[in-house]
Amino acid sequence: MSDNKMVKVIINDKELMVPEGITILEASHKAGVKIPTLCHLDLHDLKMVNQTASCRVCMVEAPGRNTLVPACVTKVSEGLEIKTNTIRAITARRMAVELLLSNHPNECFTCPKNLECELQALAAELNVREIRWEGDRMDYPKDLSSDAIVKDSNKCIYCRRCETACNEVQTCGILSGIGRGFEAFVGPFGNIPMVESSCTYCGQCVQVCPTAALTEVYHMDKVWEALNDPDKYVIVQTAPAIRVALGELFGMEAGTIVTGKMVTALKRMGFDAVFDTDFGADLTVMEEAAELIYRIKNNKTLPILTSCCPAWVKFIEHQFPELLEVPSTCKSPHIMFGTIAKTYYAKKNNIDPDNIVVVSIMPCIAKKAEAKRAELTKDEHNNVDIVVTTRELGKMIKEAGLDFTSLPDSEYDKPLGETTGASVIFGTTGGVIEAALRTAYEWMTGEELKDVEFQQLRGLEGVREATVDVGGKQLNIGIAHGLGNARTLLESIREGKSKYHAIEIMACPGGCIAGGGQPYHHGNDEIVKKRQEAIYQEDRNKKVRKSHENNEILQLYKEYLGEPFGELAHELLHTHYEERERI
Fold first, then answer.
1. Which residues are catalytic?
2. CB 256 within 8 A of CB 244
3. Is there a smaller number of Cβ atoms within 10 Å at the N or the C end of the chain?
4. Same-domain status, 311 and 398
5. Which residues of the chain have pLDDT under 70?
6. Could you give the 3-state DSSP secondary structure of residue 57?
């Protein structure tokens, strides 16, 4: 079959030429005809496609055929005629939704995904006004075992999107169909608790779930409680990817940079100090660049793998424990920031660290579990106390009654408020290694890097590679986003075939901009592209674009830490990893 061959199809009496081999659903989009879907998911650029045809919501009529056909998997052929708006097709769709609702909890008002649920929206779109089939419903206990993800099997509609994300895209192999017929749902093998599985908490299952069968663990009440405790000094930090996605929750276009409005909102909500995790990212660059140079000069283990993403760290602990010496020992940026907030910042401002509460606003669900890891604590105290996602922050801003789009811009507090362009690009795939190279280049060569944009490291291809000339030494760089792509690179290291000096891995396809805690993109990868473009624009807007030129970072080392990768820096900012059972 030729990719260029065109065929004639007729959709609702309208003739059009479309590429042979595409589905009826794709052809209908070209004809400007909407066919409702539920289980279908197609993120071409992020290589995430779910075509199970399990929900039967996209049924259409093909005159000449005895049965209706699912538009999401049925391929077009020459002369195919389709009717999408017949009574038969519309009735079938409505019945499919009614049957799903007959076995679904009737608790929309209190559901975590109220007004964001695709099943709820579809029921409204199809004018479902009553549930005609009453009877038994699934009755499974909620899985509240983990610090990151809540699994409510009673809300599972068996679309299997989460299974596709977990097994085909992320290759974690955690989720699969359990049971048959009326009581079927998706969960870990044997329906063991999530915390006992090898789940990395990347949250891609949560990101694609159309209902509330999978949601993050909510910490909003903990934040409000801390803010209303007069004995607590509550600090908040915001990750790079938040500023290019938060606006979507208030009707703003994807990729709108809302940094200043976000800072104003947080201050009005009552936080004692508002900081940017970008400061922690600049600190991470200092430590990772120093570690990279140390490994190269001393013939230590290469490649070095960036370790800012807690989901991919947990992935290597479960799936490739024999490679635990290759990741950088650096803590992630928000954990580094929390450490500095409860040491250097506390001492500088004469605040008892025990009274400081550090809140992280993250695009990532895995950060919730990361903050509880024992090896990331200091003196049995958490460096970060509470983690909330972008979505949770949006809910809190609305709960506080703030008109977000009308808020004026404000600046982050100081000290620990100065940041660079290098730290901003941590929010997208390729950004961490590019930021580290901006610093490593100048430290290794003693020369100024005039063009700081490494275009060869950018894009959305799942696995990318580049060779960067650093003072005559060729550094081979590998980049992977999505754990399935990470597996490819890790297998090459395990087999001794890796040619790289440094590798960046981000668990989520697209990086943090498409993290499990970001606003739902509902299968629209154009949203992810716009967020990425905005990240690079924010970098270009910065006067300082190299982490080692951040004056507050330099002051931190001068006053407190000493040298990058030095004794105190290693004690406070570095960690270790442990082998975990693969289940």
1. 288, 291, 308, 328, 367, 370, 375, 512
2. yes
3. N
4. yes
5. 1-3, 44-47, 378-380, 523
6. coil
Instruction: Give the residue numbers spanning the domain of 188.
Output: 138-217
**Spatial separation of the C-alpha atoms in residues 544 and 482, rounded to whole Å:** 30
Residue 395's alpha-carbon distances to 112, 399, 401, in angstroms, are: 11, 6, 10
Distance between CA atoms of 388 and 372, rounded to whole angstroms?
13
Question: What pLDDT score does 209 carry?
Answer: 95
- Does a structural domain hold residue 222? no
Whether residues 236 and 195 share a domain: the answer is no
120/147 same-domain check:
no
Residues 494 and 360 in one domain: yes
Read off the amino acid at residue 248: E
pLDDT tens-digit series, residues 115-147: 999 999 999 999 999 888 887 889 999 999 999
Shared domain check, 88 and 200: no
Which pLDDT does position 317 carry in this prediction?
Answer: 96
Contacts of 340 (CB under 8 A, 6+ apart): 280, 283, 416, 556, 572
- Count of structural domains within the chain: 3
Query: Quick one: which of 109, 96, 119, 94 has its CA closest to 38?
Result: 119
Could you report the per-residue pLDDT of 281-325, keeping only the tens digit for each? 999 999 999 999 999 999 999 999 998 999 999 999 999 999 999
Domain identity same for 462 and 334: yes
